[in-house]
Amino acid sequence: MPCLLKRPAAGSPGIITFTHNELLYGVIARSARVRSVIRDAAASGRWMFGIHVQGDCSYLAKWPLEDWQSFVMWPDRDAGFLRGLPPEQVVDLNCVSFLPESEAVVPKAARRWDLCVVSRAAEIKRIEQTLHLIRLVLDRYPALRVNFIVPDPRVLQHGERTYTADGVVRAYFDGPKRIFSAAQLRQISFISSSTESFGKFPLAHDVVANVLAQSKFLFLWSHAEGTPRVIGEALLTGTPCIVSARLRSGMAPALANQATVVLDDNDPAQDADRIVSSIRRHEEFEVNVTAARDSFADAVNRPRLVADLSAMLTRRGHAVQGEWFLEDLPLRLCCHGRKWDLQFVYNPALFFAWFERVETIDPYDEDHVCGDTGPIDRRAFEDLHRAVEKVAHLMRRTRFVAGTTRRRLLAFVRG
User: Fold this and answer.
1) How far apart are CA 347 and CA 381, in angstroms?
2) Phi, psi at residue 222, to the nearest 5°?
């Protein structure tokens, strides 16, 4: 579901953002009629459209800019895929820039846990590798205390098929008793609430923030991320991060300015030794919370967003009028609903129904923003997204593949 940021008013367009998934793989890419409606709406001056990038787009040689796109949102304006875009069309913010601030900053000496892992049971998150590396750390440092915050995405009605049909890494659920001894399991907490039962975000933000604030380090072991929100959440609580040197994400500028532990990620034993060494001297790692606020706090960046978008309107000769909708941007910009994935990917009818109602609906009412039935193409999106991730990974690994072949591969996956 696109994100409504501002409604139209006399002499002032409304503002809508689409996700990069909707642009590159979803209804915009798949439906000529959707593209025609968007182009006409932009040309009429009633709407201004932007693209919110939230995933790894490093495989793009060039951003697919079209006349109807007024701006692109991504926190690292020096990213390679943005080269060539006019500077005034890059808004160096995205969903991770609007996090609520935490009051749970805990003194280092009072922190109860050594590591906190906030992740998903997905292959791209390297959750199985994370379990095995934690085992190596425990072998070297038996007093280690770890919290895993990993929601359980399994769908009961799919039974055993949920691991393949829903892209769930089985090893996260059947691996811990095999990987860890009984004594080691006493040192680990697995907070894995069912998303099928309790929603896609079963833990409230302040619960996660409190666990992070009482942890000596956040541990993130994935290689490819967009802008992992948990890094911003950790730094806002004064918690330093341990990450892989192979991590590609839009968070690189923020992490470069913080006391971050970057592991070589070539030898698990050496990585485990480095983690133990960092824990033993954790009080030496000082997070600049003020700098984290500048990068991630809603109170700092919401006024910046309004200023950037207002400047665009003014440059185009429009007044800055109309009602702004800027609450809950960490989820709304990336279309991460609490009940459903709200991106329009396979079903153009969802887009047309939403666009007809966008000037009157309550954009914060997730239950009814798409009507009374909810979005119906979530399953198709997940299938497509996994396929595209595999193709992108293949293209990164096989650098000899020609550009034309890459385009054919993406076209094949898009259908």
Assistant:
1) 10
2) -80, 165
